[in-house]
What does this fold into?
Amino acid sequence: VLDCMGNASPISRQQRYGKKPDGVCAVVGTCAGGYDPKSNTQGDIIYTNTEIQDKGNNGQLQYFWEAFPVGIGRNGITESDIKTTYMFTYMDADSKRPPLSTIMDDYWDLLPIYQPSISDPETDLDIKRVLFAYFPTYRDSPLQPAWSRVLAVGDASGIQSPLSFGGFGALTRHLGRISTAVSEALVKDCLHKDDLGLVNAYRPDLSVTWMFQKAMSIKMKQRDVDPKFVNRLLATNFQIMNDMGMDTIKPFLQDVVRLDGLVGSLAKSFVADPTFMPEIVGHVGIPLLVDWLGHLSMLALYTVLHNAVSPALGLYADILDDHPRQQFQLRRQMEAWKFGSGSDYQFEKDE
It folds into this structure.
């Protein structure tokens, strides 16, 4: 059984047994017409134009924006007044957090500031559709199977990044790996939960992103945060990654974390703004930092194992046709090293 029922999967919920999510991304937005076609030519991925918002008893939130033109490029169309805009925020799953209706109200109020070609969304826009949702995420992901012959894939397995919550992108990245593994599991009768658990193996590239998500959110009772903290964090790091070139910033924007880009950008960020580092550590906390350093060490180890061990181990696995279970396990382990270190990413010069 392949559980493809998303983060609301009853199978995954049963396995997690009512566990509260470790993080939540609240997203609201619209697809609407009425924007200026001349300025509607490019999109945003992570854009901020406000400081941290104080919601009183509901805590503090930093809002981010995404925007994408709709229809451009189809049938020779070069202009369109239709655009999809999202406003989202990272937070914990505390019951006192604001409802989606409050965040939606903020979206309507802040949209003209983000998109100055309109002044009143109610009168200026032709609303096509409205989106509002909570996307939960868990630190113990990807989800290990609790039962034989049952494998969670996509959002049901928690394979998506806690930063982008890009479930579709994560699924397409791993589609070839998962489909090959499932096919091989069926052929070799490797359907025990221990075997299938190797398909959803630990991935340090996924685990290291948790500190970034926590750095861009504010704890429920955290009140001593500089309102410009998140904007300063993003400005510094994105400027550094942009200066390092497309080989650094493009994988990150596509939810692929690699050791070379991560260590390089962090080192240069420290040099560029050394007084900011203690503030970041104080914001995320020592326990989370120590946990992150452990995952960073595993990211380095997986990178070394993929490059140094996998070539020889792959040749050995190919001659194990008489030992199908061992062959299956070795191939899944090599895939874990490859994808867990971001080494599956194909740079343009490599394609």
Notes: The longest strand covers residues 126-137. Residues 286-308 form the longest helix (23 residues). The beta strands are 2-3, 23-33, 44-47, 53-54, 60-61, 64-69, 82-91, 126-137, 151-152. The chain has 14 helices and nine strands.
